[in-house]
Amino acid sequence: MIKSSLLLRNDVIKNLRNSISTVGKQNPTQYCMELVRKYDYENYLCTLLLPKNLRAAAFAIRAFNVEIAVIQDQTSEITISGMRYNFWNDTLKKIYNNKPPEAPVPLELTRVLQNHKLSKHYFQRLLDARWKKWQSVSFNDISVIEQYSEDTVSPINYLLLQIKGIQNIHIDHMASHLGKAQGIVTTIRSVPYHARRRTIILPKDLLIDHGVSSESVFRGESSKELSDVIFALASRANQHLKKARSLKKNFKENLSDIFLPAVNVERYLAKLQRANFDIYSRTFNKRENMIPFHLLLAKVLSKW
């Protein structure tokens, strides 16, 4: 049994090292950009609109987030996923000890740390929250989703503020509200995807209160009851978005480029409202080709 476990562990580590291309094959900076473009397209667009001197660092941060986020999709075996999380946990320590493994994301983050003082705590929060979520997929209520969003989205906002040299607890408060809005919206958007995998990520208490069965969600059935559940989540996301906007008025700093993802959150909530909060509406099957335009306009007008 021990021998089998060791063989499995070695095989997983070997596959991990092979799956993340070495520097000789691809430039680390370019690798991070492509990774974010492939798995996190809307934030890829937002990152492209950052000042040139911040862009590479932001892509490295988001690439790290992608690497640990996709673990859940790579395997259904908790043993293997645990090894993958341990691999990245060890890698994070090596990055901060200036001894990164020969892989693009760790090497790029190590390079970024030479020019920017980034808190290891925020990267660790991202990693720990993903692992905790893997072990317990469901959410009991909205507050749990809010906390998960605070742990998996807000740290990215805090790190982006750090690369811009902004250290202000009040601005962090704004970033926290925006992160919660982003996380709740991401949860809503991912309901159909998780339903196809027979996983429920909607709050249990709301499903019970509105009489929505798990099977109806799995089958992709639209109903007023399900729309009411989505409305409750969307309303909470909108509250956080409004709070973030109201706090922004108190700051002289130009935060529009850092908080551009708020534009996508705002637009999705408006789209959801037009669809009467039906997440299975055909409206959501259409690609948003105008996203780059709206993001650029928001930056130029300092909308956020």
From TrEMBL:
Keywords: Carotenoid biosynthesis
Enzyme class: transferase
Known catalytic reactions: 2 (2E,6E,10E)-geranylgeranyl diphosphate = 15-cis-phytoene + 2 diphosphate
Superkingdom to which the source organism belongs: Eukaryota
Gene3D superfamilies: Farnesyl Diphosphate Synthase
EC number: 2.5.1.32
GO biological process, one term: carotenoid biosynthetic process
SUPFAM superfamilies xrefs: Terpenoid synthases
Stated name of the protein: 15-cis-phytoene synthase
Organism: Microctonus hyperodae
